[in-house]
Each structure stands twice: as C-alpha cells, then as structure tokens.
Amino acid sequence: MTLHRLPGTETESLPLLIESILFVAQQATDVQTLALAVRRTRGEVTRALDELDERYADGGIRLQRDGDLVQLVSAPEAGPYVERFLGLESHQRLSGAALESLAIIAYKQPMTRAGVEAVRGVNSDAAIASLLGRGLVEEIGRAPGPGRPALFGTTFKFLEHFGLSDPSELPPLANMTVSEDGQIKLSLADLPDDEDDLDEDEPAAE
Question: What dihedral angle (degrees, nearest 10) is formed by the CA atoms of 142, 144, 148, 150?
Fold first, then answer.
C-alpha cells in the first residue's frame, strides 16, 4: 500500500484539521490522540480547540469537553428539532429520585451508592439503576475498603442531556433546581465537603 505524504500542519490550519477529525470520529476523542494525529503538541491542540470553541459559540455545532475528552455535538437548543428530524422519541422524564441522585453524583463525583443514599436518606438502588440504564452515569472505578464499592461519575450523555458543553458549566448548587421536564435547575441542601462526613463506615473515594 502506498502511503501519501501528509500536508503540513501549520498553526493556522490546526483548527481545520482537528475539526475534520472530530467530525468523522464516532465517539469522544482524547487530546493526546488528536495531538498524535496532527503531529503537534498537546498545548497546540488545546489552543486550537479553544479557538474552535469560540468559533462555535453562536452556531449550531458545539465543542463538548470533559477533561481530556472532546467531541462535536449539536447545539442543545436544537436538540428537540434534531430528534424530530431523526425520528427519535423525546426522552422520558427522569423521576425526582433519579434527578436528585444524578445531581449528587454530578457535584460530588466520584460517589458510591452508599454515599448517594447517605445524602438522600433513602435507598437509591432503583434511581441509580435508572441513571445507569439511560447512560447518564457510569462506573468509573472502585473505592478502597471492604467490598471495594463502585464509584459513579457522569458521562458525555449527561452533558448532552442537559445541554452542557463542559462539566464546569454546572450552575452553583445553591442556585440550582431541576424542573419536571428535566431542565437543570436543581436545588439541594448543601452537600458535605468530604464524603467521609456522609457515613463513618463509607470508604472515601480515590
């Protein structure tokens, strides 16, 4: 097989190249993979992503970032119309218990099931199972200690579901509520600063 020589990757062309790669990527891509693909440093790729972020600010495409992972998504306000075009049914509303559990995990991740239940004061098995089934949270590790309980964190689908480009866009907890239609406006009592405060027998998250 003949390998074609790649064109130069001048700094000004980096956003174009990265945009093209993200457009054809089937899932979120990490910054290091992008850097290897365009043969530039992580810093240069990050700056190019920041430029794309600014370029997309008022458009129909947004750059969604979660740590080192990045992907292209449609603007959240266009979600219902995109779903209609694709013939998709609107997502079913999350129960109040699921929304409450989701908010706890989102703000305090990584969180164990016992940690969520300590904050809510009730069994949260069904709520967490619902969130796992919808792909809004996932197991991201194991806590140290007896039984090594699963640690849960939010997913890219969580960001898409609530129209967030980055986890840092979550509003301050004291000012947040979630309406019945799933809009993120959730208000909870202040969570403890450390998961150790939730339950003396609950192992701390790594």
Answer: -30
Within this chain, do residues 50 and 137 fall inside the same structural domain, yes or no?
no
Which residue is listed with tokens 């939730």?
198
How many domains is the chain built from?
A: 2
Q: In Å, how far are 27, 33, 75, 81 from 90, measured between CA atoms?
A: 22, 34, 16, 10
Does the reported pTM lie above 0.90? no
- Residue in the block written with tokens 């174009």: 16
pLDDT in tens, 114-157: 999 888 888 889 899 989 988 899 998 998 878 889 999 998 88
The enclosing domain of 146 has a CATH number of 1.10.10.10
CA 182 – CA 40 distance, rounded (Å): 41
